Amino acid sequence: MAAGIDVCLSCFNGGCPGTPNNHAHQHAMKSGHHLTVNIRRVRKESDERPAKLTKLEIVEEPENDQYEFETFVRCWGCSGARVDNVPEDVQRVVHAVLHAVEASKGSEIKAWAEEVTACSHFDGLTQAPAADFSSEALHQCSMCDKRDNLWMCLSCGHVGCGRKQYDGSGGNNHAIAHFEQTGHRVSVKLGTITPEGTADAYCYACDDNKLNPHLAQHLQVFGINVAAQQKTEKSIAELQLEHNLKFDFSMTTADGTQLQPVAGPGLTGLRNLGNSCYLASVMQCVFGIDRFRDRYFPSAADHFLTCSQLHPAKCMLCQLHKLANGLWSGRYAVLETENGETCHQRGISPAHFKAMVARDHPEFASMRQQDAFEFLQHLNKQIDIAERPVEGGALNPTSVFDFTTEERLQCTKCSRVR
Ligand SMILES: [Zn+2]
Ligand SMILES: [Zn+2]
Ligand SMILES: [Zn+2]
Ligand SMILES: [Zn+2]
Ligand SMILES: [Zn+2]
Ligand SMILES: [Zn+2]
Ligand SMILES: [Zn+2]
Question: What class is the 277-401 domain?
Answer without folding.
Answer: alpha beta
